[in-house]
Amino acid sequence: MVPRTKDFGNGMTIARRIAAGRHTMPTAMSKIADVVTVHPAAPVELTITELADRAGTSPATVTRFCRAIGFDGYTQFRVGVASEIGRGDANESWHADIGEEFGSTDGPGKVLQTLVALHVDSLESTAARLDMDGVMQVANAVAASRHVDIYGVGGSGIIAREFQGRLYRIGVNAHAWSDVHEGLTSAVMQDARSVAVGISSTGRTDETVQMLSQAGAAGAFTVAITHDADSWLAGIADVSLATAEPSRYLRPDDLSVKHSQLLVLDLLYLLVAQQMFADASTHLAASAMAVSAHRRPPRPAKTALVPEESR
Fold first, then answer.
1. CA atoms within 13 A on the CB side of 279
2. Residues of the chain with pLDDT under 50
3. Are 240 and 230 in contact (CB under 8 A)?
4. 20 to 30 Å CA-CA from 42: which of 18, 94, 243, 288?
5. Taking a C-beta distance cutoff of 8 angstroms, is the pair 34, 41 a contact?
6. Is the pTM value of this prediction over 0.90?
7. At CB < 8 A and 24+ separation, what contacts does 3-12 make?
């Protein structure tokens, strides 16, 4: 995948390729070189558009930059960077996959403190960004709906199922969909008395965008839960609820992202329950009774042994 060219052979590192061609690069390409030099793992973590945005240039310029240093295009450049990281600096690989917030030698107490700080910051940022009028509009729509579809893929699919379970327990006819075929099948059955919720931190998950778009076309009131107000998902929704932007490097297992989504959905759940107070209370009591036989009583307290000589 890494090309052999007359000017740049496979024996040359990417950093040396950039340094060798830097003096001939126009200003726009030099900006990309600056980003990659400071953050060598950036091409692995970012799409071509994201790298262009970070450098203040265009995707076409990124492609020209890749060709200038001996790659056929951005895909080949990313493979080359990923291969080089895998062969080389373990710290770069750690920062790419785990993040710069955590050191590989941090003690458990330091890791815990860092996690708490990240998660608290994520929750506070989400609370500050939320449009409460939009939240109430969504809660009222869900409480009055005949059917709620919740769409999410991957980690967002887990969050969708959690929301569905909570709504269903208070009497809302809610269903969660991660498979795009099943989700689209349900989406076409929506109408003006339905609500459809799409969950995607980036707002660019294609399957979620497709399902929410189809539900909207069928007449449903559509809701996006995403950190990017300018994303595809937010653009097709009637209401978009903002979650916190992820920390510097968005990782698939970044739980602070999930916690901010859960905060929004927990708020919606409680507000919906308020709107349906009588019915919600009845359903909660009935469901608690239904599973009560499957809960064990508390374990008896341990009795301290008294030494025989003191009896």
1. 13
2. 1-10, 88, 249-253
3. no
4. 243
5. no
6. no
7. 3/70, 3/71, 3/72, 3/76, 5/70, 7/70, 8/69, 8/70
